């Protein structure tokens, strides 16, 4: 069902997804700190 070449693509996609999520969490934390400081 899964092709040989789709394996490497999913690895790259997973790395990209992890990278994006890591930064999203960082910015969410930063924004939360800013809002908390303003409150």
TrEMBL record:
It comes from Halobacteroides halobius (strain ATCC 35273 / DSM 5150 / MD-1). It comes from the Bacteria. This is Uncharacterized protein.
């Amino acid at each position: 069902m899964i092709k040989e070449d789709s394996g490497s693509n999913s690895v790259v996609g997973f790395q990209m997804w992890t990278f994006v999520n890591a930064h999203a969490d960082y910015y969410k934390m930063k924004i939360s700190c800013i809002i908390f400081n303003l409150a």
